[in-house]
Amino acid sequence: MILLLAQLFWTFFLIGLFGFGGGYAMLSMIQGEVVGHYHWMTMGQFTDIVAISQSTPGPIGINSATYVGYTALVNAGYEPYWGILGSFLATFAVVLPSFILMLLISKFLMKYKNHPSVGYIFSGLRPAVVGLLLAAALLLMNSENFSSMDESPWRFCISLFLFAFAFISQKVYRLGPILIILLCGLAGIILGL
Amino acid sequence: MNFELFKTFFQIGLFTIGGGYAMIPLIEQKVVDEKRWVEHDELLDLIAVAQSCPGVFAVNISIFIGLKLRGNKGALISTIGTCLPSFLCILLIALVFQQFRENVWVEHFFRGIRPAVVALIVIPVFRMAKSAKINRYNVWIPLVSAFLIWMLGVSPIFIVLAAGVSGYVYGKYLKDEELNS
Fold first, then answer.
1. Counting runs of H as helices and runs of E as strands, what totals does chain B give?
2. Mind listing the pLDDT tens digit for each residue in A134-171?
3. Cβ atoms of residues B58 and B13 within 8 Å
4. pTM of this prediction?
5. Measured between CB atoms, does A63 come within 8 Å of chain B?
6. Nearest C-alpha of chain B: how many angstroms from A2?
Protein backbone atom coordinates (compact mmCIF):
# COMPACT_ATOMS: atom_id res chain seq x y z
CA MET A 1 0.00 0.00 0.00
CA ILE A 2 2.86 2.40 0.81
CA LEU A 3 4.22 1.46 -2.61
CA LEU A 4 0.90 2.23 -4.29
CA LEU A 5 0.63 5.60 -2.53
CA ALA A 6 4.22 6.43 -3.47
CA GLN A 7 3.59 5.44 -7.10
CA LEU A 8 0.44 7.53 -7.11
CA PHE A 9 2.28 10.54 -5.75
CA TRP A 10 5.20 10.16 -8.16
CA THR A 11 2.96 9.60 -11.19
CA PHE A 12 0.86 12.68 -10.56
CA PHE A 13 3.92 14.72 -9.68
CA LEU A 14 5.35 13.86 -13.13
CA ILE A 15 2.00 14.57 -14.79
CA GLY A 16 1.88 17.96 -13.07
CA LEU A 17 5.47 18.63 -14.10
CA PHE A 18 5.20 17.64 -17.77
CA GLY A 19 1.50 18.29 -18.33
CA PHE A 20 1.68 21.12 -20.83
CA GLY A 21 -1.44 22.40 -22.53
CA GLY A 22 -4.07 22.18 -19.82
CA GLY A 23 -6.49 19.54 -18.64
CA TYR A 24 -7.30 17.77 -21.89
CA ALA A 25 -3.67 17.35 -22.87
CA MET A 26 -2.94 16.06 -19.36
CA LEU A 27 -5.65 13.47 -19.84
CA SER A 28 -3.52 11.60 -22.38
CA MET A 29 -0.68 11.42 -19.83
CA ILE A 30 -2.98 10.30 -17.04
CA GLN A 31 -4.45 7.72 -19.40
CA GLY A 32 -0.99 6.45 -20.42
CA GLU A 33 0.28 6.08 -16.86
CA VAL A 34 -2.88 5.06 -15.03
CA VAL A 35 -4.41 2.68 -17.59
CA GLY A 36 -1.48 1.68 -19.80
CA HIS A 37 1.46 1.55 -17.41
CA TYR A 38 0.14 0.79 -13.91
CA HIS A 39 -3.24 -0.84 -14.78
CA TRP A 40 -4.91 0.91 -11.85
CA MET A 41 -8.16 0.91 -13.82
CA THR A 42 -9.67 -0.11 -17.18
CA MET A 43 -10.08 2.18 -20.19
CA GLY A 44 -13.83 2.17 -19.56
CA GLN A 45 -13.42 3.36 -15.98
CA PHE A 46 -11.04 6.03 -17.21
CA THR A 47 -13.64 7.29 -19.68
CA ASP A 48 -16.17 7.49 -16.84
CA ILE A 49 -13.70 9.70 -14.99
CA VAL A 50 -13.42 11.96 -18.02
CA ALA A 51 -17.21 12.17 -18.20
CA ILE A 52 -17.48 12.99 -14.50
CA SER A 53 -14.64 15.53 -14.70
CA GLN A 54 -16.33 17.27 -17.61
CA SER A 55 -19.68 17.52 -15.90
CA THR A 56 -18.50 18.63 -12.44
CA PRO A 57 -17.07 21.96 -11.35
CA GLY A 58 -13.38 22.68 -11.38
CA PRO A 59 -10.34 22.11 -13.57
CA ILE A 60 -10.25 18.71 -15.29
CA GLY A 61 -6.66 18.03 -14.14
CA ILE A 62 -7.69 18.39 -10.49
CA ASN A 63 -10.91 16.45 -10.93
CA SER A 64 -9.22 13.49 -12.59
CA ALA A 65 -6.34 13.39 -10.07
CA THR A 66 -8.81 13.34 -7.17
CA TYR A 67 -10.88 10.63 -8.83
CA VAL A 68 -7.97 8.44 -9.91
CA GLY A 69 -6.41 8.66 -6.43
CA TYR A 70 -9.59 7.35 -4.89
CA THR A 71 -10.36 4.70 -7.52
CA ALA A 72 -6.81 3.31 -7.66
CA LEU A 73 -6.86 2.43 -3.94
CA VAL A 74 -10.41 1.12 -3.91
CA ASN A 75 -9.73 -0.99 -7.03
CA ALA A 76 -6.69 -2.44 -5.25
CA GLY A 77 -9.02 -3.64 -2.50
CA TYR A 78 -8.49 -1.00 0.20
CA GLU A 79 -11.19 0.63 2.31
CA PRO A 80 -12.77 3.92 1.11
CA TYR A 81 -10.95 6.01 3.74
CA TRP A 82 -7.64 4.95 2.21
CA GLY A 83 -9.14 6.06 -1.09
CA ILE A 84 -9.64 9.52 0.41
CA LEU A 85 -5.98 9.60 1.38
CA GLY A 86 -5.08 8.51 -2.16
CA SER A 87 -7.21 11.26 -3.71
CA PHE A 88 -5.64 13.87 -1.45
CA LEU A 89 -2.12 12.68 -2.32
CA ALA A 90 -2.78 12.62 -6.07
CA THR A 91 -4.36 16.09 -6.04
CA PHE A 92 -1.53 17.52 -3.93
CA ALA A 93 1.06 15.89 -6.19
CA VAL A 94 -0.46 17.21 -9.41
CA VAL A 95 -0.54 20.79 -8.11
CA LEU A 96 2.86 20.80 -6.38
CA PRO A 97 5.16 21.03 -9.44
CA SER A 98 3.13 23.75 -11.13
CA PHE A 99 2.98 25.62 -7.86
CA ILE A 100 6.76 25.64 -7.47
CA LEU A 101 7.38 26.17 -11.19
CA MET A 102 4.79 28.91 -11.62
CA LEU A 103 6.29 30.86 -8.73
CA LEU A 104 9.71 30.69 -10.39
CA ILE A 105 8.46 31.07 -13.95
CA SER A 106 6.20 34.03 -13.16
CA LYS A 107 9.16 35.89 -11.70
CA PHE A 108 11.45 34.76 -14.53
CA LEU A 109 9.02 35.49 -17.36
CA MET A 110 8.25 38.97 -16.07
CA LYS A 111 11.94 39.62 -16.59
CA TYR A 112 12.69 37.68 -19.81
CA LYS A 113 9.31 37.67 -21.52
CA ASN A 114 10.77 39.01 -24.75
CA HIS A 115 13.90 36.88 -24.88
CA PRO A 116 14.01 34.88 -28.15
CA SER A 117 14.99 31.55 -26.53
CA VAL A 118 11.74 31.52 -24.55
CA GLY A 119 9.81 32.10 -27.76
CA TYR A 120 11.69 29.26 -29.56
CA ILE A 121 10.80 26.71 -26.88
CA PHE A 122 7.15 27.73 -26.88
CA SER A 123 6.99 27.65 -30.69
CA GLY A 124 8.04 23.98 -30.52
CA LEU A 125 5.69 23.13 -27.67
CA ARG A 126 2.46 24.61 -29.03
CA PRO A 127 2.00 22.34 -32.10
CA ALA A 128 3.04 19.24 -30.13
CA VAL A 129 0.43 19.99 -27.47
CA VAL A 130 -2.24 19.80 -30.19
CA GLY A 131 -0.88 16.34 -31.01
CA LEU A 132 -1.17 15.24 -27.37
CA LEU A 133 -4.80 16.21 -27.38
CA LEU A 134 -5.46 14.39 -30.66
CA ALA A 135 -3.80 11.26 -29.26
CA ALA A 136 -6.04 11.38 -26.18
CA ALA A 137 -9.12 11.45 -28.40
CA LEU A 138 -7.82 8.66 -30.71
CA LEU A 139 -6.98 6.38 -27.78
CA LEU A 140 -10.52 6.72 -26.49
CA MET A 141 -12.03 5.63 -29.84
CA ASN A 142 -11.97 1.95 -28.95
CA SER A 143 -14.42 -0.91 -28.65
CA GLU A 144 -14.81 -0.39 -24.92
CA ASN A 145 -16.32 3.04 -25.48
CA PHE A 146 -18.04 2.46 -28.83
CA SER A 147 -18.51 -1.33 -28.90
CA SER A 148 -17.95 -2.87 -32.35
CA MET A 149 -19.82 -4.38 -35.31
CA ASP A 150 -18.97 -7.90 -34.12
CA GLU A 151 -19.82 -7.38 -30.47
CA SER A 152 -23.07 -5.45 -30.82
CA PRO A 153 -24.01 -3.71 -34.10
CA TRP A 154 -26.88 -1.91 -32.34
CA ARG A 155 -24.68 -0.37 -29.64
CA PHE A 156 -21.95 0.43 -32.17
CA CYS A 157 -24.31 2.36 -34.49
CA ILE A 158 -25.98 4.22 -31.61
CA SER A 159 -22.54 5.10 -30.23
CA LEU A 160 -21.49 6.54 -33.59
CA PHE A 161 -24.73 8.51 -33.73
CA LEU A 162 -24.25 9.87 -30.19
CA PHE A 163 -20.67 10.82 -31.07
CA ALA A 164 -21.89 12.79 -34.11
CA PHE A 165 -24.73 14.31 -32.09
CA ALA A 166 -22.37 15.50 -29.32
CA PHE A 167 -19.86 16.84 -31.84
CA ILE A 168 -22.39 18.82 -33.86
CA SER A 169 -24.42 20.12 -30.93
CA GLN A 170 -21.28 21.50 -29.24
CA LYS A 171 -19.40 22.73 -32.31
CA VAL A 172 -22.29 24.13 -34.32
CA TYR A 173 -25.06 24.82 -31.79
CA ARG A 174 -22.81 25.55 -28.78
CA LEU A 175 -24.82 23.43 -26.35
CA GLY A 176 -23.14 23.16 -22.94
CA PRO A 177 -21.16 19.97 -22.16
CA ILE A 178 -23.35 19.14 -19.15
CA LEU A 179 -26.53 19.22 -21.23
CA ILE A 180 -24.94 17.10 -23.98
CA ILE A 181 -23.69 14.53 -21.48
CA LEU A 182 -27.09 14.32 -19.75
CA LEU A 183 -28.93 13.94 -23.09
CA CYS A 184 -26.60 11.18 -24.29
CA GLY A 185 -26.85 9.38 -20.95
CA LEU A 186 -30.63 9.58 -21.16
CA ALA A 187 -30.50 8.21 -24.71
CA GLY A 188 -28.37 5.35 -23.38
CA ILE A 189 -31.05 4.46 -20.83
CA ILE A 190 -33.98 4.79 -23.25
CA LEU A 191 -32.30 2.80 -26.03
CA GLY A 192 -30.96 0.21 -23.57
CA LEU A 193 -27.35 0.44 -24.72
CA MET B 1 -7.91 40.55 1.83
CA ASN B 2 -6.68 36.97 2.28
CA PHE B 3 -10.26 35.82 2.71
CA GLU B 4 -11.41 37.85 -0.30
CA LEU B 5 -8.73 36.13 -2.37
CA PHE B 6 -9.77 32.70 -1.14
CA LYS B 7 -13.47 33.40 -1.65
CA THR B 8 -13.01 34.72 -5.19
CA PHE B 9 -11.02 31.71 -6.35
CA PHE B 10 -13.29 29.29 -4.52
CA GLN B 11 -16.20 30.75 -6.51
CA ILE B 12 -14.22 30.51 -9.74
CA GLY B 13 -13.40 26.87 -8.99
CA LEU B 14 -16.96 26.08 -8.03
CA PHE B 15 -18.77 27.60 -10.98
CA THR B 16 -16.56 26.45 -13.83
CA ILE B 17 -17.70 23.31 -15.53
CA GLY B 18 -15.86 21.85 -18.51
CA GLY B 19 -12.26 22.63 -17.68
CA GLY B 20 -9.77 25.47 -17.70
CA TYR B 21 -10.86 27.31 -20.82
CA ALA B 22 -14.38 27.65 -19.46
CA MET B 23 -12.89 29.58 -16.52
CA ILE B 24 -11.58 32.51 -18.55
CA PRO B 25 -14.87 34.45 -18.77
CA LEU B 26 -15.50 34.05 -15.02
CA ILE B 27 -11.95 35.09 -14.10
CA GLU B 28 -12.33 38.11 -16.35
CA GLN B 29 -15.58 39.10 -14.66
CA LYS B 30 -14.39 38.54 -11.07
CA VAL B 31 -10.74 39.46 -11.11
CA VAL B 32 -10.62 42.18 -13.78
CA ASP B 33 -14.06 43.84 -13.80
CA GLU B 34 -15.18 43.47 -10.18
CA LYS B 35 -12.01 43.45 -8.09
CA ARG B 36 -9.65 45.22 -10.53
CA TRP B 37 -6.76 43.08 -9.33
CA VAL B 38 -5.24 42.85 -12.84
CA GLU B 39 -5.78 44.79 -16.09
CA HIS B 40 -7.29 43.31 -19.25
CA ASP B 41 -3.97 43.27 -21.14
CA GLU B 42 -2.25 41.66 -18.20
CA LEU B 43 -4.84 38.90 -18.13
CA LEU B 44 -4.19 38.11 -21.81
CA ASP B 45 -0.44 37.79 -21.18
CA LEU B 46 -1.22 35.72 -18.14
CA ILE B 47 -3.37 33.32 -20.15
CA ALA B 48 -0.50 32.81 -22.61
CA VAL B 49 1.96 32.12 -19.79
CA ALA B 50 -0.40 29.79 -17.96
CA GLN B 51 -1.05 27.87 -21.20
CA SER B 52 2.64 27.52 -21.90
CA CYS B 53 3.51 26.33 -18.40
CA PRO B 54 3.01 22.78 -17.23
CA GLY B 55 0.20 21.88 -14.88
CA VAL B 56 -3.44 22.73 -14.51
CA PHE B 57 -4.28 25.87 -16.48
CA ALA B 58 -6.73 27.34 -13.96
CA VAL B 59 -4.40 26.68 -11.03
CA ASN B 60 -1.53 28.38 -12.87
CA ILE B 61 -3.64 31.50 -13.36
CA SER B 62 -4.67 31.60 -9.70
CA ILE B 63 -1.03 31.14 -8.58
CA PHE B 64 0.01 34.10 -10.72
CA ILE B 65 -2.73 36.42 -9.47
CA GLY B 66 -2.27 35.35 -5.83
CA LEU B 67 1.47 35.91 -6.15
CA LYS B 68 1.00 39.34 -7.62
CA LEU B 69 -1.40 40.46 -4.88
CA ARG B 70 -0.07 38.85 -1.71
CA GLY B 71 3.26 37.20 -2.52
CA ASN B 72 3.93 33.50 -1.87
CA LYS B 73 1.20 33.33 0.75
CA GLY B 74 -1.33 34.76 -1.69
CA ALA B 75 -0.32 32.15 -4.28
CA LEU B 76 -0.97 29.40 -1.74
CA ILE B 77 -4.36 30.81 -0.72
CA SER B 78 -5.63 31.23 -4.27
CA THR B 79 -4.44 27.73 -5.24
CA ILE B 80 -6.30 26.11 -2.35
CA GLY B 81 -9.36 28.19 -3.21
CA THR B 82 -9.35 26.95 -6.82
CA CYS B 83 -8.75 23.29 -5.97
CA LEU B 84 -10.99 22.81 -2.96
CA PRO B 85 -14.44 22.84 -4.65
CA SER B 86 -13.49 20.24 -7.27
CA PHE B 87 -11.67 18.09 -4.72
CA LEU B 88 -14.70 17.94 -2.39
CA CYS B 89 -17.14 17.51 -5.25
CA ILE B 90 -15.25 14.63 -6.89
CA LEU B 91 -14.62 12.92 -3.59
CA LEU B 92 -18.33 12.90 -2.87
CA ILE B 93 -19.10 11.50 -6.33
CA ALA B 94 -16.33 8.87 -6.07
CA LEU B 95 -17.65 7.68 -2.70
CA VAL B 96 -21.18 7.30 -4.05
CA PHE B 97 -20.37 6.20 -7.59
CA GLN B 98 -18.47 3.07 -6.55
CA GLN B 99 -21.69 1.68 -5.08
CA PHE B 100 -23.80 2.44 -8.14
CA ARG B 101 -21.20 1.29 -10.66
CA GLU B 102 -22.79 -2.15 -11.07
CA ASN B 103 -26.36 -0.85 -11.38
CA VAL B 104 -27.79 -1.63 -14.84
CA TRP B 105 -29.30 1.86 -15.35
CA VAL B 106 -26.03 3.52 -14.47
CA GLU B 107 -24.34 1.22 -16.96
CA HIS B 108 -26.78 2.20 -19.78
CA PHE B 109 -26.35 5.85 -18.83
CA PHE B 110 -22.57 5.67 -19.04
CA ARG B 111 -22.60 3.69 -22.28
CA GLY B 112 -24.56 6.58 -23.78
CA ILE B 113 -22.18 9.15 -22.32
CA ARG B 114 -18.88 7.62 -23.44
CA PRO B 115 -19.12 8.45 -27.18
CA ALA B 116 -20.19 12.00 -26.26
CA VAL B 117 -17.16 12.41 -24.01
CA VAL B 118 -14.85 11.42 -26.86
CA ALA B 119 -16.58 13.97 -29.12
CA LEU B 120 -16.15 16.67 -26.48
CA ILE B 121 -12.40 15.97 -26.45
CA VAL B 122 -12.16 16.15 -30.25
CA ILE B 123 -13.57 19.69 -30.30
CA PRO B 124 -10.76 21.40 -28.32
CA VAL B 125 -8.28 19.78 -30.73
CA PHE B 126 -9.58 22.14 -33.44
CA ARG B 127 -9.74 25.10 -31.08
CA MET B 128 -6.17 24.54 -29.93
CA ALA B 129 -4.92 23.93 -33.47
CA LYS B 130 -6.22 27.39 -34.32
CA SER B 131 -4.57 29.13 -31.36
CA ALA B 132 -1.32 27.20 -31.96
CA LYS B 133 -1.40 28.52 -35.57
CA ILE B 134 -1.29 25.08 -37.19
CA ASN B 135 -0.92 25.38 -40.99
CA ARG B 136 0.02 23.02 -43.81
CA TYR B 137 3.73 23.47 -43.09
CA ASN B 138 3.65 22.46 -39.42
CA VAL B 139 0.62 20.17 -39.37
CA TRP B 140 3.00 17.19 -39.41
CA ILE B 141 4.12 18.02 -35.85
CA PRO B 142 0.78 17.33 -34.12
CA LEU B 143 0.08 14.41 -36.49
CA VAL B 144 3.42 12.70 -35.86
CA SER B 145 3.18 13.36 -32.10
CA ALA B 146 -0.31 11.89 -31.99
CA PHE B 147 0.76 8.88 -34.09
CA LEU B 148 3.75 8.15 -31.82
CA ILE B 149 1.55 8.21 -28.73
CA TRP B 150 -1.45 6.47 -30.27
CA MET B 151 0.14 3.66 -32.30
CA LEU B 152 3.61 3.24 -30.81
CA GLY B 153 2.77 3.96 -27.18
CA VAL B 154 5.44 6.65 -26.73
CA SER B 155 4.96 8.58 -23.47
CA PRO B 156 3.59 12.12 -24.01
CA ILE B 157 6.22 13.32 -21.53
CA PHE B 158 8.96 12.50 -24.08
CA ILE B 159 6.99 14.25 -26.83
CA VAL B 160 6.79 17.44 -24.75
CA LEU B 161 10.51 17.33 -23.94
CA ALA B 162 11.47 16.62 -27.55
CA ALA B 163 9.18 19.38 -28.85
CA GLY B 164 10.61 21.96 -26.45
CA VAL B 165 14.21 21.04 -27.30
CA SER B 166 13.59 20.92 -31.07
CA GLY B 167 11.74 24.23 -30.93
CA TYR B 168 14.74 25.77 -29.22
CA VAL B 169 17.31 24.21 -31.58
CA TYR B 170 15.28 25.07 -34.67
CA GLY B 171 14.69 28.65 -33.56
CA LYS B 172 18.23 29.31 -32.43
CA TYR B 173 20.36 27.54 -35.03
CA LEU B 174 18.30 26.72 -38.13
CA LYS B 175 15.71 29.43 -38.63
CA ASP B 176 18.29 32.26 -38.69
CA GLU B 177 20.40 30.44 -41.29
CA GLU B 178 17.36 29.98 -43.48
CA LEU B 179 16.65 33.67 -43.25
CA ASN B 180 20.27 34.58 -43.98
CA SER B 181 20.74 32.29 -46.97
1. 8, 0
2. 887 888 888 878 888 888 899 999 999 999 999 999 88
3. yes
4. 0.72
5. yes
6. 21
